Automatic annotation (TrEMBL):
Family: Belongs to the short-chain dehydrogenases/reductases (SDR) family.
Single Gene Ontology MF annotation: 3-oxoacyl-[acyl-carrier-protein] reductase (NADPH) activity
Keyword Iron recorded: no
InterPro entries: KR_dom, NAD(P)-bd_dom_sf, Sc_DH/Rdtase_CS, SDR_fam
Protein name: 3-oxoacyl-[acyl-carrier protein] reductase
E.C. code: 1.1.1.100
Enzyme class of the recorded protein, top EC level: oxidoreductase
Superkingdom field: Bacteria
Organism: Streptomyces griseochromogenes
Amino acid sequence: MGRSVLITGGNRGIGLSIAHEFAAAGDRVAVTYRSGEPPEGLFGVRCDVTKAADVERAFAEVEAEHGPVEVVVANAGITRDKLLLRMDEDDFGAVLETNLGGVFRVVKRACRGMLRARSGRIVLISSVVGMSGEAGQCNYAAAKAGLVGFGRSLARELGSRGITVNIVAPGIVATDMTAVLSKERRDEICGHVPLRRMAEPGEIAPVVRFVASPEAAYITGAVIPVDGGLGMGH
C-alpha cells in the first residue's frame, strides 16, 4: 500500500515534483495548497500553514483518507525580496511566519502520530541562501537558515523514537518563483554556479525521496545541498 506522505505547498514547482516522485514509488500522497486548485491525480487539502487551525484540519483530512502521516515534507514557502532599508515589518514577518513558523506547526502536528508509531521521516526544504546569504533576501535567508537549527534540534529530540529529520537545500531552481527574475539576473546567478545552470524540480525530488526512504534510515540531522555547487564551502 505504500506510506502516507504529506507535502506542504505541493501544488506546483518543487513541491509538486516531490509529490509525483513519491506517488510514482507507490506511496499514498497528499499535498497542501493555499490557493488555486489541487493537482490532478493527487489528494489535495487547502491549508494556510500560518494558521494552526488550518494545519490541524488538513492533517485530520489526510489521516481520514490515507491514515497517519508517516512522511512529511515541509516545502511551503513565500518570498518578499527587498533590500533591508526598503523592507518593512510585514515583508520580514510574513516570510518568517510562513517559511519557519509554518514548518513548526506542520512538523509539530506530524510528530503526534510518528511518536506513537515510533517511526517517521521528516524532510525540511531549506535553500542554499540559508547558508551563503543573498542580498535582498535577508528575510528568506533567515527563515531558511532557521530550518537548519530547527531540523538538527529535532533530529536530536526524535532520533531515539525512530524518527529521522533531514534538510534538503536546493540552489536556484526553474520554478514560478524564479521565473519572475529577469533573464539578466538569472544569467548572473547561474554564472556563479559551477554547473552553469538552474536545477529542474525533478532534480530535487529524488533526493527528498531518498532521505525519506528505508535506505536512509541511518541519516539524520543532515543538510544535503542540491545546488550545482553554488554553496560549497558553506
